[in-house]
Design a protein that fits this description.
The chain is α/β, with parallel strands linked by helices. It has 16 helices and 11 strands. Helix 9 links the parallel strand 6 and strand 7.
Length: 347
């Protein structure tokens, strides 16, 4: 059984290398993915999915969680971590998670609003928009706890989150102003908040699954990409999109979501170990993500990628236009909660 699982893992990895581009094919992280222990004797298995690449600190937290849970549980609980979309795209995985076909996922924040509208608050532009504000959000109980519990009615618990950096625009031509941005066709995620944000900004966009992005960039179907410097550099998108406009309008997160029915069936000691390790390793990963963003930006600049910024006036225009989303998302998130998050983080 375990051998079959690794055949699937290797196949998924090779497929993602082809999609990500030739640059990633030089790396072979399989040796570091494979556990140093034999999990076949585990009494319980926690199947955990992620679309991300393990070179991203927020994703590799899944590997550290796997190894620490195994050690602390004395080999009773195996976290079977599957990155690189091995279990499918995020919409499919969300359905599997709700049904209990898998037990956990590290969902991108852009997809999380499909689970519960309140989770979309972290993707609203210019709300939780910096590393410091993200830390304050997580460390303030009256902000964090309503977010953590947002999907409980669907039987899902947001145990914690890691990250993948600050959102901006990668593009094939320089974007230093909103007038230049208006000429770009941006790829955005299959996510309701992002769609509404780009409509409010009056910008061209194409909703596209992540695996389709490399070819779309290379063929000119899209000329821009809404994402973070970490992801753009690690997955070699900067090979084609040689410009990056630093907007820092939101923090990209991986929300660690657990099927609560499965969690409650675990013995209490294993529940405690799993949740403790997730919290500890998520906190470590958030700090590592800060460092990784600095390193990846420096590496991209060294490789010739040009980093740009909008004027204060254009940035303020984006901020003002983004407030239009309150009309739709305020009632869905909870306007009082949204107001409290803004007031607390932006005082």
């Amino acid at each position: 059984m375990f051998k079959r699982a690794w055949v699937k893992l290797i196949g998924g990895f090779l497929g993602c290398l082809l999609l990500a581009g030739p640059g990633l094919a030089k790396e072979d992280p399989l040796a570091t993915w494979q556990p140093s222990f034999d999990p076949s004797g585990a009494a319980y298995t926690y199947l955990l999915s992620s679309v991300g690449h393990p070179a991203i600190e927020g994703v590799s937290a899944g590997l550290r969680i796997r190894d620490r849970v195994w050690e602390l549980s004395g080999g009773k609980l195996f976290v079977d971590f599957r990155p690189l979309s091995q279990l499918g795209g995020e919409k499919d995985v969300i359905n599997k998670l709700k049904l209990g076909a898998i037990q956990g996922m590290m969902s991108s924040s852009v997809a999380a609003a499909n689970i519960a509208p309140r989770l979309g608050i972290v993707n609203l532009p210019f709300v939780v928009d910096s590393f410091d504000r993200l830390d304050a959000f997580r460390e303030t109980p009256e902000l964090w706890e309503p977010f953590r519990d947002a999907a409980l009615r669907q039987g899902l618990l947001v145990a914690d989150f890691t990250g993948y950096g600050s959102y901006g625009w990668a593009s094939t031509e320089p974007v230093k102003s909103l007038s230049e941005a208006a000429k770009v066709n941006f790829r955005i995620a299959q996510a309701p908040v992002n769609i509404d944000a780009y409509k409010s900004w009056g910008l061209q966009f194409t909703v596209m699954p992540w695996p389709d992005v490399p070819q779309a960039l290379q063929t000119g179907v899209i000329s821009g990409l809404d994402h973070t410097p970490i992801v753009c550099n690690v997955t070699k998108k900067f090979n084609v999109a040689r410009y990056y406009t630093e907007l820092d309008y939101a923090q990209g997160l991986y929300l660690h979501i657990i099927n609560q029915r499965w969690l409650k069936k675990l013995p209490q000691d294993l529940q405690d170990i799993l949740l403790q390790v997730i919290a500890e390793e998520s906190a470590v990963a958030r700090q590592l993500t800060r460092q990784q963003q600095t390193e990846q930006i420096a590496a991209a600049k060294q490789d010739g990628v040009t980093f740009l910024a909008l004027s204060d006036e254009d940035r303020q225009t984006l901020i003002s236009q983004a407030r239009k989303l309150d009309a739709n998302w305020g009632p869905r998130i909870g306007q009082d909660y949204l107001d409290k998050v803004r007031a607390t983080l932006h005082r």
